[in-house]
Amino acid sequence: MYFYKINTKSSANGIFLLFVVFVLYNVKADDVSVVNSALPPTCYTCEGANCLRVTKLNTTTDCTDPLDYCVTIFKGFTVVARGCYAELTPSLRQRCDSDSHPECTKCIGNRCNNKGRADFKCIECNSSYNNKCLTDVIILPGVECPIPTAPNSYCYVRQNTDGTTERGCLVHQREQRECLSNAQCSMCVSDFTEACNTYKITTRITSGVDSLLRNYNVNTIIKISLMFITVLRYD
Q1: Cα 176 from Cα 181, distance rounded (Å)
Q2: In angstroms, what CA-CA distances link 91 with 60, 86, 187?
Q3: d(Cα 58, Cα 63) in Å, to the nearest integer?
Q4: What are the φ/ψ torsions at residue 70 (nearest 5 degrees)?
Q5: Predicted TM-score (pTM) above 0.85
Q6: pLDDT, tens digit, for every residue of 166-200?
Q7: What contacts 36, CB < 8 A, 6 or more positions away?
C-alpha cells in the first residue's frame, strides 16, 4: 500500500486523496489500458439477456465520473451485468461492496472488464508450441478465462487430428456445443478449484458427453445437465 503525506491545512484535499488510495487499493489495475485520471473510463456494458448475446459483447459505455471503475456482475457463472460501478442499480452494486465477493470483478482501465470470474481458471496451451501441454501439464499455471456469453463456463482438453493436444476455456455456447459433438474433445467444471483440464484424453473416448460425465459423481452430473438445459435456451 502507498502512503501519502497529506496537508493538514486542507481537509478537503486530504479526504479526496484518501478516497483515491482506497479505490486504487481495492480494485485490480488493468494490464493493457491505463486510465487518464482526468477522464472517465470506458467500460464494456450489458444487462440481463444482452450479456448472453455475442452481438452485444463489445458494447461500451463512457462513465461520467473520473473516479469510477469497471465491473462485471455474475449470478453463479452467468454474467448478469457489466458497466460503470456508479451507474449500476443498487441491487447489482451491493455484490461489489465486499472486497472479495466472487460474483463481482472490479478493475481500473478502459474496457478492462473483459474477463470471467476471477476464481475460475483453466490451463491454456497447445502442444505444438509447448511440450508441457502433453508431459507436465500440472506445472502450468491456470489463466483467467475471457468474459463468457454462455450461462456457464468450462475448461476443455482436445486432441486435434494432427496429434497435438490443446487446452483452454470454453465460454461461448457454440464452442461448447462443438466440443460436445467431438469425440476427441472433453469439458470439465473446475468446481472452484484451479485448472481442472490437466487430464489426458485417451483413444477410448466415445463422445464429448461421455468424456464430460465420466469424470464426475452423480450430483455433479445432475448439475451439469441442468446447466446445459439453460445453455440451450439461448442462441
Answers
A1: 9
A2: 21, 12, 33
A3: 16
A4: -90, 145
A5: no
A6: 999 999 999 999 999 999 999 998 766 678 999 98
A7: none
Grid coordinates standing for 52?
448472453
d(CA 66, CA 85): 12
Please state, in angstroms and as integers, the Cα–Cα distance from residue 187 to each residue in 41, 83, 99, 141, following that order. 36, 30, 31, 18
Instruction: Please report the pLDDT score of residue 222 as a whole number.
Output: 38
Q: Which amino acid is at 205?
A: I
Give the three cell numbers for residue 159.
486432441
| AA identity, residue 84 | C
The residue assigned the cell 470439465 is 188
CA distance 206 to 56: 36
The C-alpha cell of 169 is what?
476455456
Assign residue 192 a region (left: φ > 0; alpha: ψ between -120 and 50; beta: otherwise).
left
The SS3 of residue 67 is coil
CA distance 81 to 74: 7
